[in-house]
Amino acid sequence: MYFPSDHARHIFEESPRDSRDAICKLCKSTVSFESFAYYCRECRSHFHKDCLTIINAKIHEHTLTFIRRENPFPCDVCGRDDKGMDMYGCLQCDFFVHRQCIFLPKVIKLTRHSQRLSHVFRISDGDNICGVCRSQVDVRYGGYSCIEKTCNYVVHSSCIIRFDVWDGKDLEEEPEPEEIDSQVDLAALVEIDGKSVRHFSHEHDLLRLDMGEKEESGQVCQACVLPIEFGSFLGCKQCDFALHDVCASLPRKMEHGIHIHPLTIHVDAMNNENGFFTCSVCNQHSCGFMYKCCQEDCEFKIDVKCASFAEPFDHSVKVALNLQDLQQNVTKDAGFPWSSNA
Q1: 61-67: which pairs have CB atoms within 8 A and are 24 or more residues apart?
Q2: At 244, is the secondary structure helix, strand, or coil?
Q3: Residue 325 — φ and ψ, nearest 5°?
Q4: Among 26-35, 74-83, 208-217, which is the least confidently predicted range?
Q5: What is the mean pLDDT of the chain?
Q6: Phi and psi at residue 158, in whole multiples of 5°?
Q7: Is 80 exceeded by the pLDDT of residue 156?
Q8: How far apart are CA 206 and CA 289, in angstroms?
Q9: DSSP character for 328?
Q10: Which residues cross the membrane (predicted)?
Q11: Confidence of residue 229 (pLDDT cuts 50, 70, 90)
Q12: What distance in Å separates the CA atoms of residue 33 and residue 31, rounded to the nearest whole number?
């Protein structure tokens, strides 16, 4: 069998049945005895038949055919023209797409944005800055945009693939989740009588105190484990428990762009080894409050200091930083399934 356009000057033959360790060059999965596949002796490559031509792809209405030769055109989905990436073309129309872009999800949810995002083939005109890499989004190519029409949040399609920002779930046919369970969504602080408040982490009522008073010096915040040096704070008159005002208002459940899953706050460090835990972002030990991933099989943990970072960073020295820079420090056991694509 000869494919003059798909596999230039090479001949495809039926894949040998004795190739037990054969791997498809395109999908990287095993070529089993039951699968229908081709083999090229010239380059010693195996190809599943279904990988050479893809039908009924969500990304395009026509059959897509693998193009073996180098293609000088950019991908019509992500806009990138990276060499070495497997490219497919439509023989009926002028459409070219990377293999990895064929299988992009239709609807996704990122922890760095409050609403779901849907894939579109053209981004609306405007000042479109990618919510992941912070660079301009080319309106001529596709991307992801917020489902809320009044919101201009957009993301490059390539950023969904390249960076650990997506949990791998396509939400196209899944309804919007109902409101969070009331037991989890309880406010961190409850006002008692105008002077005292109750915090979910402590058994005693707390008073609003001022560090300007001498008798209140030497206090340490139980959440961030940093000294309370000035301003007002919440303190307990029955014990030495104290919290910064900001730390006392931390949500009990949050989504943070540094991790792909929701996080829940844990306040009892004694449940950890020796009363300490290691932050997955800064790798520092802490005995303060901890945000932990809601997924049972994910070991991601973050202290409240790192959890206080939010995008975009606005620093007086104008250092160009975003969550990608912090993610370089996240340990490999943090639960990211897509790190191999970065």
Answers
A1: 62/90, 62/91, 62/92, 62/93, 62/95, 63/90, 63/91, 63/92, 64/88, 64/89, 64/90, 64/97, 64/102, 65/5, 65/6, 65/89, 65/90, 65/91, 66/6, 66/26, 66/99, 67/5, 67/6, 67/96
A2: strand
A3: -65, -40
A4: 208-217
A5: 79
A6: -65, -30
A7: yes
A8: 17
A9: T
A10: none
A11: confident
A12: 7
Q: Is the model's pLDDT at 188 over the cut of 80?
A: no
The whole-number pLDDT of residue 19 equals 58
Beta-sheet pairing, 290-293 with 301-303: antiparallel
Side-chain half-sphere CA neighbours of 143 within 13 A: 27
Q: How far is CA 290 from CA 222, 256, 280, in A?
A: 11, 13, 11
Decide the pairing of beta strands 290-293 and 285-286. Answer: unpaired
Phi, psi torsion values for 232, nearest 5 degrees: -85, 160
- Joined together, the tokens standing for residue 304 give 């409240």
Phi, psi at 144, each rounded to 5°: -115, 135
Handedness of CA 207, 211, 212, 217 (dihedral sign): positive
In this predicted structure, the answer to whether residue 328 has a pLDDT above a threshold of 70 is no
CA angle 251, 257, 259 (to 5 degrees): 90
For the chain, give the percent of residues with pLDDT over 70: 79
Where residue 117 falls (left for φ over 0; alpha for ψ -120 to 50; beta otherwise) is beta
Q: Could you tell me which residues come within 8 angstroms of residue 225 by beta carbon, excluding any fewer than 6 positions away?
A: 286, 287, 288
Please answer whether residues 88 and 80 qualify as being in contact, where contact means their C-beta atoms are separated by less than 8 angstroms: no
AA identity, residue 281: V
Please tell me the predicted confidence (pLDDT) of residue 313: 57
What is the pLDDT averaged over residues 174-180? 72
pTM: 0.73
Does residue 294 carry a pLDDT above 50?
Answer: yes
Domain boundaries, the chain: 189-248, 253-335
Sole residue written with tokens 């490219």: 87
Tokens of 157: 């399609």
Q: How many helices (H) and strands (E) does the chain have?
A: 6, 22
Alpha helices in 21-74 (DSSP H): 49-52
